[in-house]
Specification:
Distance between the termini: 36 Å
Strand content: 5-15%
Radius of gyration: 19 Å
Shape: globular
Number of strands: 6
Structural class: alpha/beta
Length: 273
């Protein structure tokens, strides 16, 4: 039987923040790194990544859960709900109910199911109301992981990792991990799965002190460049993922080289058009 790693979700799992134009959708991410290390241990491992940035929970369930189950994964990761938490008009009880049903479906598949808490990202006062929703979500994830532990659920408790208190683990939008953050996440996931791997994390060293005035300027620029456009898109009903396809919609073998596979796929597409 083929061992298969299938990941579903939104920007966190797609790899946003870990930019690489040589790969689908211009990103790499922690899941690609995990898949690569699995293939080093056993070249027959296959990998599919169905995640698309900005996807809300209902669309992830509708578009990704059953296709993922149909691939008969050995390990499936499920990170979803973050974009719903940012929508204050979305009822948390309804979000958590949908999330729980999706977890049950994935656990019923027989795969090991990675469930993630969300990190308590330091937020500007403008976004502070989101924190309580994130806390409620994390409590529910922990409870579900404990409830379904015998069914294959595995908790990745992102919330508790102090390394992400360092701003150098985050992209300029302060909401997505950067390359260092994705690499650290990959290492943690591999360790949790008990996979022997070759990834190492280089310590970032002491942080530079931020002068208050410089911090205020950065916050103002962040609000202008990232927060206001994000809420503007939400008001218009558009997302950054509307024109994107899943990065690896069908299982591929990372042992064949993900960049090489993407170049081949691109050439095939260009010839077909």
């Amino acid at each position: 039987m083929v061992e298969r790693f299938v990941v579903i979700g939104d920007s966190f799992t797609e790899g946003v923040g870990d930019w690489d134009a040589r790969l689908p959708n211009g990103v790499r991410g922690w899941a690609d790194r995990v898949a690569k290390q699995l293939s080093k241990a056993d070249p027959t491992w296959e990998y599919a990544n169905l995640a698309i940035r900005s996807r809300r929970l209902d669309r992830i369930i509708e578009e990704q859960v059953e296709p993922a189950v149909a691939m008969r994964p050995t390990v499936v990761s499920f990170y979803a709900g973050g974009n719903d938490i940012l929508e204050l008009r979305h009822d948390m009880d309804a979000i958590l109910h949908s999330y729980a049903r999706a977890v049950e479906r994935l656990c019923f598949s027989g795969a090991r199911v990675l469930l993630f808490t969300g990190f308590d990202v330091p937020m500007h006062p403008v976004l502070e109301p989101m924190k309580r929703r994130n806390w409620a979500f994390n409590r529910a994830v922990r409870e579900l992981a404990a409830k379904h532990e015998r069914d294959g659920a595995v908790l990745v408790d992102y919330w508790t990792w102090d390394a992400y208190q360092d701003r150098r683990m985050w992209d300029t939008d302060k909401l997505h991990m950067n390359r260092a953050g994705h690499r650290y996440m990959a290492i943690q996931v591999l360790n949790i799965l008990g996979v022997v791997h070759q990834l190492e994390f280089e310590e970032l060293g002491p942080q530079d002190r931020v002068v208050l005035r410089d911090g205020l300027i950065r916050d103002a620029e962040w609000l202008r460049q990232w927060v206001l456009p994000m809420f503007g898109r939400r008001l218009r009903g558009v997302t950054l993922g509307d024109r994107l396809e899943p990065r690896w919609p069908e299982p591929v073998r990372p042992a064949d080289g993900l960049k090489r596979l993407y170049r081949k796929r691109t050439r095939t597409t260009m010839k077909a058009s």
